[in-house]
Specification:
- The complex is a heterodimer.
- Chain A is mostly helical.
- Chain A is 78% helix and 0% strand.
- The mean pLDDT of chain B is 94.
- Classes of the chains: A mainly alpha, B alpha/beta.
- The complex binds adenosine-5'-triphosphate and magnesium ion (MG).
Protein backbone atom coordinates (compact mmCIF):
# COMPACT_ATOMS: atom_id res chain seq x y z
CA UNK A 1 0.00 0.00 0.00
CA UNK A 2 1.39 3.41 -0.89
CA UNK A 3 1.41 6.26 1.61
CA UNK A 4 -1.29 7.99 -0.45
CA UNK A 5 -3.69 5.06 -0.20
CA UNK A 6 -2.96 4.79 3.53
CA UNK A 7 -4.02 8.41 3.91
CA UNK A 8 -7.19 7.74 1.88
CA UNK A 9 -8.02 4.71 4.00
CA UNK A 10 -7.54 6.71 7.20
CA UNK A 11 -9.79 9.48 5.93
CA UNK A 12 -12.54 6.99 5.08
CA UNK A 13 -12.34 5.42 8.55
CA UNK A 14 -12.30 8.80 10.28
CA UNK A 15 -15.32 10.02 8.36
CA UNK A 16 -17.24 6.83 9.18
CA UNK A 17 -16.48 7.09 12.89
CA UNK A 18 -17.31 10.79 12.95
CA UNK A 19 -20.59 10.26 11.11
CA UNK A 20 -21.47 7.44 13.49
CA UNK A 21 -20.69 9.51 16.58
CA UNK A 22 -22.66 12.46 15.22
CA UNK A 23 -25.55 10.57 13.80
CA UNK A 24 -26.45 7.56 15.92
CA UNK A 25 -29.90 7.68 17.44
CA UNK A 26 -30.92 10.86 15.67
CA UNK A 27 -34.59 11.36 14.84
CA UNK A 28 -36.43 14.20 13.18
CA UNK A 29 -37.44 15.51 16.60
CA UNK A 30 -34.20 15.41 18.52
CA UNK A 31 -31.56 16.06 15.86
CA UNK A 32 -31.19 19.77 16.53
CA UNK A 33 -30.49 19.25 20.20
CA UNK A 34 -28.08 16.35 19.75
CA UNK A 35 -26.19 17.86 16.85
CA UNK A 36 -25.66 21.12 18.70
CA UNK A 37 -24.15 19.13 21.58
CA UNK A 38 -22.19 16.61 19.53
CA UNK A 39 -20.69 18.84 16.88
CA UNK A 40 -18.43 20.94 19.15
CA UNK A 41 -17.37 17.77 20.95
CA UNK A 42 -16.24 16.05 17.79
CA UNK A 43 -14.69 19.23 16.48
CA UNK A 44 -12.73 19.50 19.73
CA UNK A 45 -11.51 15.92 19.35
CA UNK A 46 -10.37 16.53 15.80
CA UNK A 47 -8.61 19.76 16.71
CA UNK A 48 -6.91 18.20 19.71
CA UNK A 49 -5.79 15.25 17.56
CA UNK A 50 -4.12 17.55 15.09
CA UNK A 51 -2.50 19.62 17.83
CA UNK A 52 -1.15 16.60 19.68
CA UNK A 53 0.06 14.86 16.52
CA UNK A 54 1.86 17.87 15.06
CA UNK A 55 3.42 19.01 18.31
CA UNK A 56 4.62 15.54 19.27
CA UNK A 57 6.02 14.75 15.86
CA UNK A 58 7.89 18.03 15.52
CA UNK A 59 9.17 17.77 19.09
CA UNK A 60 10.55 14.28 18.46
CA UNK A 61 12.28 15.37 15.28
CA UNK A 62 14.08 18.27 16.91
CA UNK A 63 15.08 16.23 19.95
CA UNK A 64 16.13 13.25 17.79
CA UNK A 65 14.24 10.60 19.71
CA UNK A 66 11.00 8.67 19.54
CA UNK A 67 10.10 8.53 23.19
CA UNK A 68 9.86 12.09 24.46
CA UNK A 69 6.76 14.12 23.71
CA UNK A 70 5.76 17.52 25.06
CA UNK A 71 3.23 15.79 27.34
CA UNK A 72 5.87 13.52 28.81
CA UNK A 73 8.14 16.52 29.30
CA UNK A 74 5.51 18.17 31.48
CA UNK A 75 3.91 20.65 29.09
CA UNK A 76 0.32 19.71 29.84
CA UNK A 77 0.95 19.44 33.57
CA UNK A 78 2.17 23.00 33.33
CA UNK A 79 -1.04 24.02 31.59
CA UNK A 80 -3.07 22.54 34.43
CA UNK A 81 -0.98 24.34 37.01
CA UNK A 82 -1.59 27.61 35.19
CA UNK A 83 -5.35 27.00 35.19
CA UNK A 84 -5.43 26.17 38.89
CA UNK A 85 -3.23 29.15 39.73
CA UNK A 86 -5.52 31.48 37.84
CA UNK A 87 -8.52 30.32 39.87
CA UNK A 88 -6.46 30.32 43.03
CA UNK A 89 -5.22 33.86 42.56
CA UNK A 90 -8.13 35.59 40.88
CA UNK A 91 -11.09 33.41 41.87
CA UNK A 92 -13.28 31.21 39.72
CA UNK A 93 -15.64 34.00 38.77
CA UNK A 94 -12.97 36.43 37.63
CA UNK A 95 -12.70 37.60 34.04
CA UNK A 96 -9.35 35.88 33.70
CA UNK A 97 -10.78 32.51 34.66
CA UNK A 98 -13.99 32.75 32.69
CA UNK A 99 -13.16 34.64 29.51
CA UNK A 100 -11.61 32.01 27.23
CA UNK A 101 -9.74 34.60 25.17
CA UNK A 102 -7.98 36.21 28.13
CA UNK A 103 -7.46 32.90 29.86
CA UNK A 104 -5.99 31.31 26.77
CA UNK A 105 -3.71 34.25 25.98
CA UNK A 106 -2.22 34.16 29.47
CA UNK A 107 -1.78 30.38 29.41
CA UNK A 108 -0.26 30.35 25.95
CA UNK A 109 2.14 33.13 26.92
CA UNK A 110 3.39 31.23 29.96
CA UNK A 111 3.65 27.96 28.01
CA UNK A 112 5.70 29.57 25.30
CA UNK A 113 8.00 31.21 27.86
CA UNK A 114 8.41 27.87 29.57
CA UNK A 115 9.35 26.22 26.30
CA UNK A 116 12.03 28.86 25.79
CA UNK A 117 13.42 27.98 29.20
CA UNK A 118 13.29 24.31 28.34
CA UNK A 119 15.04 25.08 25.08
CA UNK A 120 18.03 26.54 26.87
CA UNK A 121 18.02 23.69 29.31
CA UNK A 122 18.08 21.04 26.55
CA UNK A 123 20.20 22.62 23.95
CA UNK A 124 22.29 25.08 25.93
CA UNK A 125 24.51 22.49 27.54
CA UNK A 126 26.25 20.22 25.08
CA UNK A 127 25.27 16.82 26.44
CA UNK A 128 21.87 15.42 25.58
CA UNK A 129 21.15 12.12 27.21
CA UNK A 130 17.64 10.98 26.37
CA UNK A 131 17.26 8.85 29.48
CA UNK A 132 18.19 11.78 31.71
CA UNK A 133 15.79 14.06 29.87
CA UNK A 134 13.06 11.44 30.21
CA UNK A 135 13.61 11.25 33.95
CA UNK A 136 13.69 15.02 34.24
CA UNK A 137 10.46 15.21 32.28
CA UNK A 138 8.66 12.64 34.37
CA UNK A 139 9.80 14.24 37.62
CA UNK A 140 8.94 17.70 36.36
CA UNK A 141 5.44 16.75 35.26
CA UNK A 142 4.78 15.00 38.58
CA UNK A 143 6.03 18.04 40.43
CA UNK A 144 3.86 20.46 38.45
CA UNK A 145 0.89 18.15 38.72
CA UNK A 146 1.31 17.81 42.47
CA UNK A 147 1.65 21.54 43.00
CA UNK A 148 -1.57 21.94 41.04
CA UNK A 149 -3.20 19.29 43.24
CA UNK A 150 -1.99 21.00 46.38
CA UNK A 151 -3.48 24.31 45.26
CA UNK A 152 -6.73 22.52 44.49
CA UNK A 153 -6.87 21.22 48.07
CA UNK A 154 -6.54 24.73 49.37
CA UNK A 155 -9.35 26.03 47.18
CA UNK A 156 -12.84 26.92 48.23
CA UNK A 157 -15.10 23.90 47.45
CA UNK A 158 -17.15 25.95 45.01
CA UNK A 159 -14.12 26.98 43.07
CA UNK A 160 -12.83 23.43 43.20
CA UNK A 161 -15.69 22.31 40.99
CA UNK A 162 -14.64 24.76 38.26
CA UNK A 163 -11.05 23.58 38.21
CA UNK A 164 -11.81 19.90 38.56
CA UNK A 165 -13.26 19.72 35.09
CA UNK A 166 -9.87 20.77 33.71
CA UNK A 167 -7.75 18.37 35.72
CA UNK A 168 -8.70 15.29 33.77
CA UNK A 169 -9.07 14.79 30.09
CA UNK A 170 -12.68 15.26 29.27
CA UNK A 171 -14.25 15.18 25.90
CA UNK A 172 -17.76 15.63 27.23
CA UNK A 173 -17.55 19.20 28.34
CA UNK A 174 -16.07 21.57 25.82
CA UNK A 175 -16.91 25.20 25.54
CA UNK A 176 -18.04 26.15 22.06
CA UNK A 177 -16.28 29.48 22.36
CA UNK A 178 -12.99 27.72 23.05
CA UNK A 179 -13.40 25.42 20.06
CA UNK A 180 -13.88 28.33 17.71
CA UNK A 181 -10.97 30.18 19.27
CA UNK A 182 -8.71 27.17 18.74
CA UNK A 183 -9.47 26.69 15.05
CA UNK A 184 -7.44 29.68 13.80
CA UNK A 185 -4.61 29.03 16.28
CA UNK A 186 -4.19 25.45 15.18
CA UNK A 187 -4.49 26.44 11.57
CA UNK A 188 -1.75 29.07 11.86
CA UNK A 189 0.56 26.82 13.86
CA UNK A 190 0.00 23.96 11.40
CA UNK A 191 0.78 26.19 8.43
CA UNK A 192 3.95 27.39 10.14
CA UNK A 193 5.06 23.81 10.82
CA UNK A 194 4.28 22.69 7.28
CA UNK A 195 6.41 25.57 6.00
CA UNK A 196 9.29 24.05 7.94
CA UNK A 197 8.59 20.52 6.70
CA UNK A 198 11.51 20.36 4.26
CA UNK A 199 13.94 21.75 6.80
CA UNK A 200 12.74 19.30 9.42
CA UNK A 201 13.44 16.47 6.96
CA UNK A 202 17.11 17.46 6.98
CA UNK A 203 17.16 17.11 10.76
CA UNK A 204 16.77 13.34 10.30
CA UNK A 205 20.50 13.48 9.44
CA UNK A 206 21.33 14.87 12.92
CA UNK A 207 22.40 18.40 13.71
CA UNK A 208 25.91 18.44 12.27
CA UNK A 209 24.91 17.16 8.85
CA UNK A 210 21.93 19.49 8.89
CA UNK A 211 24.22 22.43 9.63
CA UNK A 212 26.53 21.38 6.82
CA UNK A 213 23.50 21.39 4.54
CA UNK A 214 22.71 24.96 5.52
CA UNK A 215 20.01 24.49 8.15
CA UNK A 216 20.25 26.93 11.04
CA UNK A 217 19.62 24.24 13.62
CA UNK A 218 19.19 26.40 16.76
CA UNK A 219 16.65 28.67 15.08
CA UNK A 220 14.65 25.82 13.54
CA UNK A 221 14.69 23.98 16.85
CA UNK A 222 13.50 27.03 18.72
CA UNK A 223 10.66 27.72 16.31
CA UNK A 224 9.49 24.13 16.31
CA UNK A 225 9.57 24.08 20.10
CA UNK A 226 7.53 27.29 20.36
CA UNK A 227 4.95 25.96 17.93
CA UNK A 228 4.79 22.68 19.86
CA UNK A 229 4.20 24.59 23.09
CA UNK A 230 1.41 26.60 21.51
CA UNK A 231 -0.24 23.48 20.10
CA UNK A 232 -0.03 21.65 23.41
CA UNK A 233 -1.62 24.63 25.14
CA UNK A 234 -4.44 24.39 22.62
CA UNK A 235 -4.99 20.68 22.99
CA UNK A 236 -4.84 20.72 26.78
CA UNK A 237 -7.27 23.63 26.85
CA UNK A 238 -9.63 21.69 24.63
CA UNK A 239 -9.59 18.19 26.04
CA UNK A 240 -7.23 18.13 29.03
CA UNK A 241 -4.06 16.04 29.36
CA UNK A 242 -3.79 12.85 27.31
CA UNK A 243 -0.36 11.71 28.39
CA UNK A 244 0.46 8.88 26.00
CA UNK A 245 -1.52 9.77 22.89
CA UNK A 246 1.37 11.69 21.28
CA UNK A 247 3.82 8.88 21.86
CA UNK A 248 1.40 6.30 20.49
CA UNK A 249 0.50 8.11 17.30
CA UNK A 250 3.98 9.34 16.36
CA UNK A 251 5.38 5.85 16.61
CA UNK A 252 2.50 4.20 14.79
CA UNK A 253 3.05 6.75 12.02
CA UNK A 254 6.75 5.97 11.81
CA UNK A 255 6.02 2.26 11.68
CA UNK A 256 3.28 2.43 9.11
CA UNK A 257 4.34 5.15 6.68
CA UNK A 258 7.38 4.58 4.49
CA UNK A 259 8.28 8.16 3.60
CA UNK A 260 10.71 10.36 5.49
CA UNK A 261 8.99 13.58 4.45
CA UNK A 262 7.39 15.57 7.22
CA UNK A 263 4.79 16.88 4.81
CA UNK A 264 3.25 13.43 4.54
CA UNK A 265 4.15 12.27 8.05
CA UNK A 266 2.45 15.30 9.64
CA UNK A 267 -0.74 14.52 7.74
CA UNK A 268 -0.52 10.80 8.47
CA UNK A 269 0.14 11.39 12.15
CA UNK A 270 -2.78 13.82 12.46
CA UNK A 271 -5.09 11.33 10.81
CA UNK A 272 -3.94 8.39 12.95
CA UNK A 273 -4.44 10.60 15.97
CA UNK A 274 -8.00 11.49 14.91
CA UNK A 275 -8.75 7.86 14.26
CA UNK A 276 -7.45 6.90 17.70
CA UNK A 277 -9.61 9.45 19.49
CA UNK A 278 -12.76 8.95 17.45
CA UNK A 279 -12.64 5.15 17.47
CA UNK A 280 -11.75 5.27 21.17
CA UNK A 281 -14.79 7.42 21.81
CA UNK A 282 -17.03 4.95 19.95
CA UNK A 283 -15.64 2.13 22.08
CA UNK A 284 -16.14 4.10 25.29
CA UNK A 285 -19.71 5.06 24.40
CA UNK A 286 -20.88 1.80 22.89
CA UNK A 287 -18.73 -0.99 24.30
CA UNK A 288 -18.10 0.25 27.82
CA UNK A 289 -21.39 2.18 27.90
CA UNK A 290 -19.57 5.20 29.35
CA UNK A 291 -18.34 3.20 32.33
CA UNK A 292 -14.82 4.40 31.57
CA UNK A 293 -13.34 7.49 29.91
CA UNK A 294 -11.52 7.97 26.66
CA UNK A 295 -8.34 9.15 28.35
CA UNK A 296 -8.21 5.96 30.40
CA UNK A 297 -8.48 3.85 27.25
CA UNK A 298 -5.90 5.92 25.35
CA UNK A 299 -3.47 5.98 28.26
CA UNK A 300 -3.89 2.24 28.79
CA UNK A 301 -3.06 1.42 25.17
CA UNK A 302 -0.43 4.15 24.95
CA UNK A 303 1.14 3.04 28.21
CA UNK A 304 1.41 -0.56 27.03
CA UNK A 305 2.97 0.64 23.80
CA UNK A 306 5.44 2.78 25.77
CA UNK A 307 6.45 -0.25 27.84
CA UNK A 308 6.88 -2.34 24.71
CA UNK A 309 9.18 0.34 23.27
CA UNK A 310 11.22 0.45 26.46
CA UNK A 311 11.54 -3.34 26.52
CA UNK A 312 12.50 -3.51 22.85
CA UNK A 313 14.96 -0.68 23.52
CA UNK A 314 13.56 1.38 20.67
CA UNK A 315 14.20 4.61 22.43
CA UNK A 316 16.37 6.48 20.01
CA UNK B 1 40.79 29.91 0.44
CA UNK B 2 40.12 28.87 4.01
CA UNK B 3 42.41 30.58 6.49
CA UNK B 4 42.63 29.45 10.08
CA UNK B 5 44.24 31.92 12.48
CA UNK B 6 45.29 31.31 16.08
CA UNK B 7 42.57 28.81 16.87
CA UNK B 8 42.32 27.63 20.48
CA UNK B 9 39.87 25.19 21.98
CA UNK B 10 39.73 23.70 25.46
CA UNK B 11 37.73 20.87 26.96
CA UNK B 12 37.61 20.97 30.74
CA UNK B 13 40.83 22.95 30.96
CA UNK B 14 42.67 20.71 28.50
CA UNK B 15 43.81 22.35 25.27
CA UNK B 16 42.75 20.17 22.34
CA UNK B 17 43.54 22.78 19.71
CA UNK B 18 46.32 25.14 20.52
CA UNK B 19 47.28 28.17 18.48
CA UNK B 20 46.55 26.63 15.09
CA UNK B 21 47.45 28.54 11.93
CA UNK B 22 46.85 26.83 8.61
CA UNK B 23 45.43 27.61 5.19
CA UNK B 24 43.70 25.55 2.53
CA UNK B 25 43.82 26.53 -1.11
CA UNK B 26 41.51 25.74 -3.97
CA UNK B 27 42.82 23.17 -6.41
CA UNK B 28 44.71 21.31 -3.68
CA UNK B 29 44.14 18.18 -1.65
CA UNK B 30 45.27 18.67 1.93
CA UNK B 31 45.49 15.73 4.30
CA UNK B 32 45.45 16.10 8.06
CA UNK B 33 47.29 13.27 9.78
CA UNK B 34 48.22 12.51 13.38
CA UNK B 35 47.60 10.05 16.19
CA UNK B 36 44.19 9.42 17.81
CA UNK B 37 43.09 12.33 19.92
CA UNK B 38 45.51 14.74 18.25
CA UNK B 39 42.73 17.22 17.52
CA UNK B 40 42.17 16.56 13.82
CA UNK B 41 38.39 16.26 14.02
CA UNK B 42 38.26 19.23 16.36
CA UNK B 43 40.06 21.40 13.82
CA UNK B 44 37.81 20.22 10.99
CA UNK B 45 34.67 20.87 13.02
CA UNK B 46 35.78 24.36 13.99
CA UNK B 47 36.62 25.20 10.38
CA UNK B 48 33.19 24.12 9.26
CA UNK B 49 31.19 25.93 12.02
CA UNK B 50 30.09 22.66 13.64
CA UNK B 51 32.03 23.43 16.80
CA UNK B 52 32.59 26.73 18.62
CA UNK B 53 36.15 27.82 19.19
CA UNK B 54 37.44 29.59 22.29
CA UNK B 55 39.51 32.11 20.37
CA UNK B 56 40.94 32.76 16.92
CA UNK B 57 39.35 33.24 13.52
CA UNK B 58 38.46 31.25 10.46
CA UNK B 59 38.10 33.02 7.12
CA UNK B 60 36.30 31.45 4.17
CA UNK B 61 36.92 33.38 0.94
CA UNK B 62 38.05 36.31 3.06
CA UNK B 63 34.90 36.51 5.19
CA UNK B 64 34.90 35.43 8.79
CA UNK B 65 33.01 32.22 9.46
CA UNK B 66 30.56 33.84 11.90
CA UNK B 67 29.59 36.42 9.28
CA UNK B 68 28.44 33.77 6.80
CA UNK B 69 24.77 32.87 6.82
CA UNK B 70 24.67 29.11 7.33
CA UNK B 71 22.43 28.78 4.29
CA UNK B 72 24.82 30.63 1.98
CA UNK B 73 27.90 28.92 3.35
CA UNK B 74 26.35 25.52 2.63
CA UNK B 75 26.67 26.28 -1.08
CA UNK B 76 30.41 26.87 -0.64
CA UNK B 77 31.48 24.44 2.04
CA UNK B 78 30.47 20.87 2.78
CA UNK B 79 31.64 18.77 5.68
CA UNK B 80 31.26 15.09 6.53
CA UNK B 81 31.89 13.96 10.09
CA UNK B 82 33.71 10.85 11.21
CA UNK B 83 30.52 9.09 12.31
CA UNK B 84 27.02 9.71 11.06
CA UNK B 85 23.71 8.66 12.55
CA UNK B 86 20.35 8.66 10.91
CA UNK B 87 17.05 8.92 12.73
CA UNK B 88 15.01 7.67 9.83
CA UNK B 89 15.06 5.00 7.13
CA UNK B 90 16.43 6.34 3.85
CA UNK B 91 17.36 4.81 0.55
CA UNK B 92 20.81 5.59 -0.81
CA UNK B 93 19.33 7.88 -3.41
CA UNK B 94 17.17 9.74 -0.90
CA UNK B 95 20.23 10.38 1.25
CA UNK B 96 22.27 11.62 -1.71
CA UNK B 97 19.39 13.92 -2.66
CA UNK B 98 19.83 15.76 0.63
CA UNK B 99 23.13 17.00 -0.79
CA UNK B 100 21.09 19.28 -3.03
CA UNK B 101 19.21 20.84 -0.12
CA UNK B 102 21.36 24.01 0.03
CA UNK B 103 20.61 24.66 -3.63
CA UNK B 104 16.93 23.85 -3.87
CA UNK B 105 15.60 23.67 -0.29
CA UNK B 106 14.05 20.26 -0.80
CA UNK B 107 12.32 20.83 -4.15
CA UNK B 108 14.53 18.98 -6.62
CA UNK B 109 15.04 20.57 -10.05
CA UNK B 110 16.23 18.78 -13.18
CA UNK B 111 19.76 20.03 -12.58
CA UNK B 112 19.61 18.61 -9.07
CA UNK B 113 18.53 15.23 -10.40
CA UNK B 114 21.41 15.23 -12.89
CA UNK B 115 23.95 16.04 -10.20
CA UNK B 116 22.53 13.29 -7.98
CA UNK B 117 22.72 10.81 -10.86
CA UNK B 118 26.35 11.82 -11.51
CA UNK B 119 27.28 11.29 -7.88
CA UNK B 120 25.66 7.85 -7.95
CA UNK B 121 27.56 6.91 -11.09
CA UNK B 122 30.94 8.26 -9.95
CA UNK B 123 30.84 6.11 -6.84
CA UNK B 124 29.31 3.07 -8.57
CA UNK B 125 26.19 3.09 -6.46
CA UNK B 126 23.70 2.29 -9.24
CA UNK B 127 23.03 -1.23 -7.98
CA UNK B 128 22.24 -0.17 -4.42
CA UNK B 129 20.69 3.25 -5.07
CA UNK B 130 17.19 2.14 -4.06
CA UNK B 131 18.24 0.04 -1.08
CA UNK B 132 17.64 1.22 2.47
CA UNK B 133 20.79 2.33 4.28
CA UNK B 134 20.09 0.21 7.35
CA UNK B 135 20.38 -2.87 5.13
CA UNK B 136 23.83 -1.91 3.84
CA UNK B 137 27.36 -2.62 4.99
CA UNK B 138 29.42 0.01 6.80
CA UNK B 139 31.45 0.77 3.70
CA UNK B 140 28.42 1.07 1.44
CA UNK B 141 26.89 3.53 3.90
CA UNK B 142 30.12 5.53 3.94
CA UNK B 143 30.08 5.70 0.13
CA UNK B 144 26.49 6.97 0.21
CA UNK B 145 27.43 9.76 2.63
CA UNK B 146 30.41 10.73 0.47
CA UNK B 147 28.13 10.80 -2.56
CA UNK B 148 25.80 13.14 -0.65
CA UNK B 149 28.69 15.53 0.01
CA UNK B 150 29.75 15.34 -3.64
CA UNK B 151 26.20 16.16 -4.72
CA UNK B 152 26.39 19.28 -2.58
CA UNK B 153 28.94 20.48 -5.15
CA UNK B 154 30.82 23.03 -3.03
CA UNK B 155 34.17 24.76 -3.49
CA UNK B 156 35.37 23.43 -0.14
CA UNK B 157 34.94 19.77 0.74
CA UNK B 158 35.95 18.68 4.25
CA UNK B 159 35.93 14.96 4.94
CA UNK B 160 36.73 13.39 8.30
CA UNK B 161 38.16 9.92 7.69
CA UNK B 162 36.38 9.29 4.39
CA UNK B 163 38.07 5.90 4.04
CA UNK B 164 36.38 4.58 7.20
CA UNK B 165 35.19 1.02 6.56
CA UNK B 166 36.25 1.05 2.92
CA UNK B 167 38.15 -1.76 1.21
CA UNK B 168 41.26 -1.07 -0.87
CA UNK B 169 39.39 -0.84 -4.14
CA UNK B 170 36.88 1.66 -2.82
CA UNK B 171 39.54 3.60 -0.92
CA UNK B 172 41.46 4.03 -4.15
CA UNK B 173 38.30 5.03 -5.95
CA UNK B 174 37.51 7.68 -3.33
CA UNK B 175 41.07 9.03 -3.29
CA UNK B 176 41.11 9.29 -7.09
CA UNK B 177 37.79 11.11 -6.98
CA UNK B 178 39.10 13.43 -4.33
CA UNK B 179 42.13 14.26 -6.42
CA UNK B 180 39.94 14.87 -9.47
CA UNK B 181 37.65 17.18 -7.49
CA UNK B 182 40.68 19.27 -6.54
CA UNK B 183 42.72 19.22 -9.71
CA UNK B 184 40.05 19.13 -12.40
CA UNK B 185 37.25 21.03 -10.69
CA UNK B 186 39.43 23.40 -8.67
CA UNK B 187 37.95 22.60 -5.28
CA UNK B 188 39.79 22.67 -1.99
CA UNK B 189 39.53 19.19 -0.51
CA UNK B 190 40.58 18.63 3.10
CA UNK B 191 40.64 15.11 4.47
CA UNK B 192 41.49 13.66 7.83
CA UNK B 193 43.16 10.35 7.14
CA UNK B 194 45.04 7.67 9.03
CA UNK B 195 46.53 5.80 6.08
CA UNK B 196 49.79 7.68 5.58
CA UNK B 197 50.51 6.09 2.24
CA UNK B 198 47.20 7.26 0.79
CA UNK B 199 47.95 10.69 2.23
CA UNK B 200 51.42 10.64 0.70
CA UNK B 201 50.36 9.52 -2.77
CA UNK B 202 47.18 11.51 -3.21
CA UNK B 203 47.63 14.84 -1.44
CA UNK B 204 49.38 18.02 -2.38
CA UNK B 205 49.89 19.23 1.17
CA UNK B 206 49.94 17.49 4.51
CA UNK B 207 49.30 18.85 7.98
CA UNK B 208 50.54 16.67 10.83
CA UNK B 209 49.00 17.25 14.26
CA UNK B 210 50.04 16.08 17.69
CA UNK B 211 48.60 16.96 21.09
CA UNK B 212 46.37 19.69 19.72
CA UNK B 213 49.18 21.43 17.86
CA UNK B 214 50.25 21.53 14.26
CA UNK B 215 53.55 19.66 14.35
CA UNK B 216 54.38 20.38 10.74
CA UNK B 217 52.52 21.60 7.68
CA UNK B 218 53.93 21.48 4.20
CA UNK B 219 54.26 19.60 0.95
CA UNK B 220 54.32 15.81 0.84
CA UNK B 221 58.10 15.89 0.40
CA UNK B 222 58.50 17.97 3.56
CA UNK B 223 56.23 15.92 5.80
CA UNK B 224 56.62 12.32 4.67
CA UNK B 225 60.12 11.86 6.08
CA UNK B 226 61.14 9.26 8.60
CA UNK B 227 62.34 11.62 11.38
CA UNK B 228 59.20 13.77 11.14
CA UNK B 229 56.80 10.82 11.25
CA UNK B 230 58.74 9.08 14.02
CA UNK B 231 58.37 12.11 16.28
CA UNK B 232 54.66 12.39 15.52
CA UNK B 233 53.73 8.74 16.00
CA UNK B 234 56.49 7.66 18.43
CA UNK B 235 57.07 4.61 16.21
CA UNK B 236 60.04 3.64 14.03
CA UNK B 237 59.41 4.53 10.38
CA UNK B 238 61.12 3.77 7.11
CA UNK B 239 60.31 5.92 4.08
CA UNK B 240 61.18 4.55 0.66
CA UNK B 241 60.72 6.01 -2.77
CA UNK B 242 58.68 3.89 -5.12
CA UNK B 243 57.54 5.06 -8.56
CA UNK B 244 58.38 8.62 -7.54
CA UNK B 245 56.16 8.47 -4.45
CA UNK B 246 57.19 8.46 -0.82
CA UNK B 247 55.93 5.27 0.78
CA UNK B 248 56.14 4.46 4.47
CA UNK B 249 56.96 1.10 5.98
CA UNK B 250 56.15 0.84 9.67
CA UNK B 251 55.89 -2.73 10.76
N1 LIG C 1 33.07 16.53 23.44
C1 LIG C 1 34.28 16.41 24.01
N2 LIG C 1 34.44 16.60 25.34
C2 LIG C 1 35.65 16.49 25.92
N3 LIG C 1 36.77 16.20 25.25
C3 LIG C 1 36.69 16.00 23.92
C4 LIG C 1 35.45 16.09 23.23
N4 LIG C 1 35.66 15.85 21.92
C5 LIG C 1 36.97 15.59 21.81
N5 LIG C 1 37.60 15.68 23.00
C6 LIG C 1 39.03 15.51 23.23
O1 LIG C 1 39.72 16.33 22.35
C7 LIG C 1 40.87 15.69 21.86
C8 LIG C 1 40.90 15.76 20.36
O2 LIG C 1 39.80 15.02 19.84
P1 LIG C 1 39.59 14.84 18.29
O3 LIG C 1 38.28 14.16 18.10
O4 LIG C 1 39.79 16.13 17.60
O5 LIG C 1 40.78 13.82 17.91
P2 LIG C 1 41.15 13.20 16.51
O6 LIG C 1 42.50 13.71 16.18
O7 LIG C 1 40.09 13.41 15.52
O8 LIG C 1 41.27 11.66 16.88
P3 LIG C 1 40.82 10.35 16.06
O9 LIG C 1 41.93 10.04 15.13
O10 LIG C 1 40.72 9.31 17.11
O11 LIG C 1 39.54 10.64 15.41
C9 LIG C 1 40.86 14.28 22.41
O12 LIG C 1 41.79 14.23 23.49
C10 LIG C 1 39.47 14.10 22.93
O13 LIG C 1 39.49 13.31 24.09
MG1 LIG D 1 38.68 12.24 14.61
Amino acid sequence: MTDKSKICLLIILIVSFAVFLLGHGLTADNYQYFLSKRTPKILAMILASIAIALSSFAFQTITHNRILTPSIMGFDALYLLIQVSIVFITGSLSVVALNPYINFSISAFIMVSFSTLLFHFYFGSGRRNIIVLLLVGVVLSQLLFNIANMLVMMLDPNEYAVVQANMFASFGTVSKQLVYLCIPIILLAAIALFKHANVLDVLWLENDNATSLGVDVPIVTKRALLLSALLIAVSTALVGPVLFLGLLVTNLTREWFTTYQHKTLFIGCSLISMLALLSGQVIVEHVFALQTTLSVVINFIGGLYFLRMLLKNQIV
Amino acid sequence: MIKVENINKQYAGKLVASNINVAFEKGKVTSIIGPNGAGKSTLLSIMSRLLDKDSGSVYVDGTELEKWATKTLAKRLAVLKQTNNLNMRFTVKELISFGRFPHSQGKLTDTDRQVIQHAIEYLDLQVIQDKYLDNLSGGQKQLAFIAMVMAQDTDYVLLDEPLNNLDIKHSLQIMKNIRRLAHDMNKAVVIVIHDINFASCYSDNIIAMKNGEVAIAGSVQEVIRAPVLESIYDTPFKVVTLDNQNVCVYY
